[in-house]
Design a protein that fits this description.
The chain is an alpha+beta fold. The protein has 4 domains: 192 residues, no CATH class; 116 residues, no CATH class; 127 residues, Beta Barrel (Thrombin, subunit H), CATH 2.40.10; 84 residues, predicted glycosyltransferase like domains (Thrombin, subunit H), CATH 2.40.10.220. Helix content is 35%, strand content 25%. Strands 8-9-10-13-12-11 form a 6-stranded antiparallel beta barrel. Strands 14-15-16-19-18-17 form a 6-stranded antiparallel barrel. Strands 3-5-4 form a 3-stranded antiparallel beta sheet, covered by helices on one side. Strand 14 and strand 15 form a beta hairpin. Helix 4 packs antiparallel against helix 5, helix 5 runs antiparallel to helix 6 and helix 10 runs antiparallel to helix 11. The longest helix has 29 residues. 40% of the residues are buried.
Length: 542
């Protein structure tokens, strides 16, 4: 009896508040039970399936009976999960109470199916851990189904920017290690429920690659892109017990930890991902404008926004995610979300309409009282700042935590203003962008902030196109982080790869040391800051 086999039968998730009837063992009774599910009430049906699976996993059964019980139930569970996901995916975070309940139910259903198929595999191979006569297909299918549903749990928690429940990573590792011991990891296994065949090796490597790419640093739509990238390269990446190669990552053999966790060398395997890294390097070199094509196989490639490609490369270790030494500390700072809020505070708590009025009254701007700002609506919502706790920081950014009672709504790629100056002094607003995001179990929000500038000024921007003056827009002048770098402006809107002639108008600059400025005419190059956000950086040409 192998160690890998013994590990299959323990470490299942504990479900609370489960009541009702376990799944019937008899096939005829099971069919009657499924036929009488409340299909007119999708959520109630999902709850009954959850309860039936949770109680059924505690019952003693023959492995083949459990497997044959799970197969017809799985189709209804997959449909219920799809319905639940439509209720919350794409909704603003943090989720409302009802949407969060649906998300937890979907996670529970996937976890229970993964655990149940893992238990069925243990029962099939009991007592010595060997494949019974004529049961190879059933054992392989149970392992594949279990691994796929563990993967779905992780994918969903990443999309919700939450930490994974206990036991999921360990279950994933245990299923793969047992498949490896039976030499089933490279076998094509049909999955009628998904309408395709797949290999256990490819599923496991796909999940590991996604974890390495750090999904918390990507928007939900971007996570779909990196999953497709991981899926495309999973057959070309190998897992080795020992490795001295450069492009490898540690995978725990049995610990309940993700890929590249701090685990002793004798308790890990190694994921070799040189093919992916090589393809990313080539894509960066051949990038055209804001897009890059990553070649997966000959004749097949995937197009990624350059910002997504850079984040993938950074996460895989080709570029250092932390270029500065970090200082661990604990203190509070003032934060603002989005350009509109930063502009309001950086302009001396003046909304944009009054800001433009002040410009026109200064007399030297060439603005008439019939300018387009008159037709603009005022800022409807009162701008507010939020207190955040600094967990650590460096010259390049901050790791922040917002408490749950502030009801923060934020996305990866969002612009953040930060002020560390005391409340009785004139604030100096820094500008950063959310690099990664995670919602904790207590409702608090953790985020990594990459600094764009340690000081900004509120400005009004007018982009001139084909000799015609555009509308006035909010903008922020970003003081360069390092001397010698060109000046930059941040604005709302997507202007990828375009050269722009810009009028920059100034009024309120309390921290400026030199003479006041009125208006500048500049030539700039525009780049989109993040693929999922409509923010652009205007870089002034030398």
């Amino acid at each position: 009896m192998s160690v890998q086999f013994n590990r299959l039968s323990s470490g299942f998730a504990a479900m609370e508040g489960v009541q009702g009837q376990a799944l019937p063992a008899d096939s005829r009774a099971l069919k009657h039970w499924l036929d009488n599910l409340p299909r007119g009430n999708a959520r109630e049906m999902a709850v009954m399936l959850r309860n039936g699976l949770a109680l059924g996993i505690k019952a003693k059964m023959e492995g083949s009976d459990r497997y044959n019980q799970l197969e017809p139930v799985r189709a209804d569970v997959i449909d219920s999960i799809a319905w639940l996901e439509r209720q919350f995916l794409g909704s603003p975070l943090p989720l409302t109470h009802d949407r969060l309940a649906n998300a937890r139910l979907a996670l529970q259903l996937n976890t229970l199916l993964a655990d149940s198929y893992r238990l069925a595999c243990f029962e099939l191979c009991f007592p010595n851990g060997a494949i019974p006569l004529l049961k190879s297909t059933m054992v392989g299918s149970a392992l594949q189904r279990s691994l796929w549903h563990y993967q779905q749990v992780l994918v969903l928690t990443w999309k919700l920017y939450q930490t994974c429940a206990e036991g999921v990573w360990q279950g994933l590792h245990r299923v793969y290690q047992f498949a490896l011991s039976l030499k089933l990891e490279s076998k094509d296994i049909a999955d009628p429920g998904l309408g395709r065949s797949m290999r256990i090796h490819d599923l496991y490597v796909e999940t590991a690659l996604m974890s390495l790419m750090n999904p918390f640093a990507f928007a939900q739509t971007e996570q779909d892109q990196i999953r497709a990238l991981a899926k495309g390269f999973s057959p070309r990446c190998s897992i080795q017990r020992f490795s001295a190669l450069e492009h490898t990552a540690k995978i725990p053999v049995d610990a309940d930890l993700p890929v590249d966790a701090d685990v002793p060398d004798d308790e890990v395997a190694y994921l070799q991902n040189a093919s992916l890294i090589s393809a990313l390097e080539h894509a960066v070199v051949s990038a055209d404008g804001g897009q890059a094509d990553v070649e997966i196989t000959r004749g097949q490639s995937q197009t990624l926004h350059i910002s997504v490609l850079k984040k993938v490369r950074r996460a895989l270790g080709l570029a250092s995610a932390r270029g500065f030494a970090r200082i661990y500390d604990s203190y509070e700072i003032e934060t603002i979300v989005a350009i509109s809020g930063i502009h309001y505070f950086a302009a001396g708590k003046i909304d944009f309409e009054n800001y433009i009025q002040n410009l026109s009254q200064m007399g030297n701007q060439g603005l008439s009282m019939a300018a387009d700002w008159i037709s603009m609506g005022t800022d409807v919502q009162a701008q507010r700042s939020l207190r955040a706790k600094v967990l650590d920081h460096s010259l390049g950014g901050y790791r922040l935590k917002w408490s749950a009672d502030q009801a923060l709504r934020i996305r990866v790629g969002e612009i953040i203003g930060l002020n560390t100056i005391r409340a009785d002094l004139e604030p100096i607003w820094m500008v950063g962008v959310v690099r990664w995001l995670r919602y904790e179990q207590d409702g608090s929000v953790l985020a990594g902030i990459k600094l764009l500038s340690r000081r900004c000024s509120a400005v009004a921007l007018r982009i001139n196109q084909a000799g015609r003056a555009g509308s006035l827009m909010r903008g922020l002048e970003l003081t360069p982080l390092d001397s010698g770098l060109p000046r930059r402006f941040l604005m709302s809107g997507r202007l990828e790869g375009q050269k722009q002639e810009v009028e920059v108008m100034y009024t309120y600059e309390p921290n400026r040391l030199g003479p006041p400025r009125l208006v500048e005419h500049l030539k700039t190059n525009a780049t989109t800051l993040a693929s999922n956000m409509d923010y652009s950086i205007l870089v002034v040409e030398a």
